[in-house]
Design goal:
Number of strands: 0
Shape: elongated
Helix content: over 70%
Radius of gyration: 21 Å
Strand content: under 5%
Order of helices and strands: HHH
């Protein structure tokens, strides 16, 4: 008698879980790096407590901008990695994992783009 396990069946929960985790990886990395980017100016302010306001402000802006640039680069590299993994899954026949990762990446793109869309559409100065 042949035994089938849940992990080897096509479309199993493990396949979906792996796809979801792969699709969420870029967002998780972006959130962690964004949190570090927000904390870094505070650390810089504490480290430069004896300096003047202008020096503190300059260092904080540079630290924030540099960390946001690093976050964008890591996010892009993570996306490339997930797309490569999805291609290898499709080529090896694991379409459930690839599909779950693709749908998760679509949701991730909406989450990342939502603040920009809201800022563009939200009225900056309400009409009197």
């Amino acid at each position: 008698m042949a035994q089938s396990t849940a992990g080897s069946a096509p479309g199993s929960r493990d396949d979906v879980r792996r796809g979801l985790l792969a699709g969420l990886t870029p967002l998780i990395r972006l959130v962690v790096l964004f949190a570090i980017a927000l904390a870094l100016p505070t650390v810089a302010r504490l480290a430069l407590g004896a300096q003047g306001f202008a020096t503190q402000q300059e260092v904080e802006v540079i630290a924030l901008a540099a960390m946001l640039l690093v976050a964008a680069i890591v996010y892009a590299a993570s996306l490339v990695g997930v797309f490569r993994r999805m291609r290898s899954w499709r080529e090896s026949g694991h379409t459930t994992q690839a599909t779950a990762a693709l749908w998760t990446l679509a949701a991730t793109a909406l989450i990342v783009a939502l603040p920009v869309v809201l800022a563009a559409l939200w009225p900056q100065h309400p009409a009197p």
